[in-house]
Amino acid sequence: MKLVDQEGNEITSKKNEEAQELEKQLAQSAQKLLEPLMSKLQLANQQIGQEQLMQITSMAHQMIFNRMIFNLVRKVGIKDMSELVGEDDLEELKTSFNNQFKFSKSEQEPPEA
After folding, report:
1. Which letter does DSSP use for residue 109 in this model?
2. Could you list the pLDDT tens digit for every one of the 113 residues in the chain?
3. 38 by DSSP, 3-state: which?
4. Which of 38, 39, 65, 35 is nearest to 52 (CA)?
5. What's the CA dihedral at 28, 30, 34, 36 to 10 degrees?
6. What is the SS3 assignment for 49-99?
7. Distance between CA 34 and CA 60 in Å, rounded?
8. pLDDT of residue 53
9. Can you tell me the distance from the alpha carbon of 46 to that of 49, in angstroms, rounded to the nearest whole number?
10. What is the rounded CA–CA span in Å between residue 94 and residue 100?
């Protein structure tokens, strides 16, 4: 997790006890979110691979982050998403997102969206 000070300088979690505590709380929240699924798997005598476990843990973190952002947006009274994410942001994210994927069957770039 990355935090920034009031001047916008990054404070790494290794140097920041507050960030370490937030990371610990996030991990605990993700664990709570995953408990029912893990219990079902255990009761069904099923196992999942390490990669799949990492994916569902990442999904749990993302769901928590989304809820945190939603709650913050509501709390500060923002009604229009364009106040937070504009067209320029979406174009930049679209390029970044597209660049993260490579097709395994060919070395060609993915088709333009």
Report:
1. P
2. 566 777 877 776 566 788 788 889 999 999 999 999 999 999 999 989 999 999 999 999 999 999 999 999 999 999 998 999 999 999 998 988 888 877 666 555 555 65
3. helix
4. 38
5. 60
6. CHHHHHHHHHHHHHHHHHHHHHHHHHHHCCCCHHHCCCHHHHHHHHHHHHH
7. 7
8. 92
9. 10
10. 10
**pTM score:** 0.65
Residue type, 55: Q
**In 75-110, which positions are buried (b, 16+ CB within 10 angstroms) versus exposed (e)?**
eeeeeeeeeeeeeeeeeeeeeeeeeeeeeeeeeeee
CA distances from 84 to 62, 92, 97 (A): 18, 14, 19
Q: If you search the block for the tokens 């664990």, which residue do you land on?
A: 31
- Cβ atoms 44, 38 nearer than 8 A: no
* Identity at 15, one-letter amino acid code: K
